[in-house]
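Hey L., structure's done. Input below.
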Amino acid sequence: MENLPIFSLAQQLGIPADAVEPYGRDKGKISLDELKRGTKRGKLILVSAITPTPAGEGKTTTSIGLAQGMKLIGKSVALALRQPSMGPVFGRKGGATGGGKSTVQPATEINLQFTGDFHAITSAHNLLAAAIDNKLYFRNTRLDPRRITWKRVVDMNDRALRNIVVGCAGNGVPRESGFDITVASEIMAILCLAEDYDDLRARLNRMVVGFDAENKPVFAEEIGVTGSLMAILKEALKPNLVSSVEGVPAFVHGGPFANIAQGCNSVIATKMALTHADYAITEAGFAFDLGGEKFFDIKCRTAGIAPDAVVIVATIRALKMHGGKGLKELTEPDVAAVERGLENLGAHIESAKKFGRPIVVALNKFPTDTAEEFAAVEKFCASQGVPAAYAGSFAEGGAGCTELAKLVCEACEKPSPAFAPLYPLDVPVARKLEIIAKEIYGADGVVILPKALKKLDALTLAGGDKMMICMAKTQNSLSDDPAKLGRPRGFKITVRDFEIAAGAGFLVALTGDIMRMPALPKAPCAETIDLDAAGNITGMLGV
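Output:
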């Protein structure tokens, strides 16, 4: 299907032309004032997944397919999705706009510069970094050069920049620093939690950029460039509107790292979808243990929203991997392996139930699936009191998701208790960690290393003890050991360090080896992407 013109797409949602800022023919930004004019109070659907494997789960493809299926059965629906980072696009992933007949368009532009939001975040982050070093150069700050935590960022996978030395050759105060990927910037997390410009300014001001000689926090407000950061981020705070290939409106806005931050699209985009459609479909990074928990405990708590239903995406292939099969064996029928792998799906269903929302399992369809394997999944889900349906998103688009769409709409009508986060903010940090580890990961407890305990004392001065918890944990396992597939038991979560994101409002608990700057693989997707003589981008996966 040809991409819908942006004004026609906005009109479909009841958004007037004067609220649309077009970026070309088929994409645009929507005025923040339009949030106040929206009249609907739609049902919110969260799409999450089982623990990811190299077999792939297709969560975004399923989200888009589900929305298209809902449109086909006559529902008013809008998507609220994350923007892709160019790092993974040119690295291993190759694109993140869905796949097959369930994509958002224009896919190549969304996967690359899009409307410039990530560039704005990169520039704002690096302006603050430059201003910090300028303060050091002129000795006009109480910052201790050894305790500066604010690095620089770039929207690219570049392992060579992880650790650097700045200020050499008389160009400043020499010190160790480094680069993170842009999606790991606290400014990205803040942009996706801010409700308006005033909220954005307040959050930027209270970011912690380092500590003084007495280990007291130094806030971004003291550096004096918040006004300039606001100027850079003015357009980036406005949500982007595009279309799926079947004409479903999609607000694609923001994309914080799902390990280091909350891993969800912006609050503004989600609320824009909710106030302009009867159903709003959104997703959270990785599986329910990471993305789902953070969606509820960070995004919902901050924004005052809550889903009416939760969809958990799985595949027969991934269940086989969790059941002990190797990547090369996944095309072979094996009901026993599927049944073993269902323990992982069961763990995520149990976690989602703790938030009191109806659950539907979406089984992303592959040609190698057998009826017997699907029957095993369906039987298991029934034993959990959860309906399941195939999602033929990739090959069939919305037509392959109508059964799933009907189940999700039915789930949205079921009564849910008032939303309550998993933990209160006024309990000790150790208790918050224990609740998440035991209730969501299935751990026996938490071990906080001495270095982390010492760091926590300093972060308490910046209010870290009263903040939400953002767990930085491997996405490849329910535990903090990426090699443990399925449903690990008899383990503890080890917290090796803490970081503070005071502007975003959460304390980051670091477990395992979490990289803020990913690396390119041996054969990156950057080697296959090209531009032909007609100006068409080729070789980008998922486009």
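Residues 339 and 376 are 7 Å apart (CA to CA). The first helix runs from residue 6 to 12.

-- N.
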